[in-house]
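=== RUN LOG ===
request id: a7f3
mode: sequence -> structure
chains: 1
length: 240
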Amino acid sequence: MIIDNNFFIDLKVFLNDISKNHILPNLGKVSSSDIKIKVDSSKATIHDENIESLLISYFTSKGFTSFIAEETYPSNFNNKNKYLTLDPIDGTRNFINGVNKIAIMISYIENKKNIFSVIHNPINNDFYHIVDNKIFKNFQLHNIRNLNGHIGYLSNIGINKFSSIIGDYKIKDRSSSIGYDMIQILEGDRSFLPLHKGKIWDIFPVLGFLENINFYSLNSKQIKFDLDLANESFFYYAKI
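=== RESULT ===
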């Protein structure tokens, strides 16, 4: 496989098509018969499943062979040293309820290192990717806007744990999508991000971006793309 600028250009076109044909026409219009409750009480729709199938087929055609994909894991996962993570619709509840806070998230991990991460906003087709320690938004180098103070969401537990560390902060509504939260960080609209455990397809794409911006973790100074990370909680924040 060749991971170059053309690879990402082609991927953006593909994700744009998915947004146009599968996400936007069904946003807030999912029938109850097309929704299922998973073992962990999270929701999935037939559209999550269809998009994931399309993503796996697409990346298979590009030479990828091992996947940690939300709706089918552990199927198609056969190489723990080289694999793609796929989250077809991060923020499925938002998608069902017609809330424009969703993302498609992808990362490629090789020998516990992030080779690239992608977060695509299907609402406006903004395409963020990180490769070679550089962040791009729609293929232009992207710099995060400097913040004068902290902005974000904390639960009651989070307030007890972290408010003394970050000091004063403005409250931001919970988005119910880690990918959307990361987009807001990239756009300078959030300055901290609690990750209370999670799934690999959720956290690895986000960690791919966080390890390359001025964000710090209370848990570890160095981000490691280890499958055991799904069992840990993290709190990342900007030094302001």
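=== NOTES ===
Helices lie at 5-23, 46-61, 92-97, 156-166, 178-186, 200-210.
Residues 151 and 190 are 5 Å apart (CA to CA).
=== END ===
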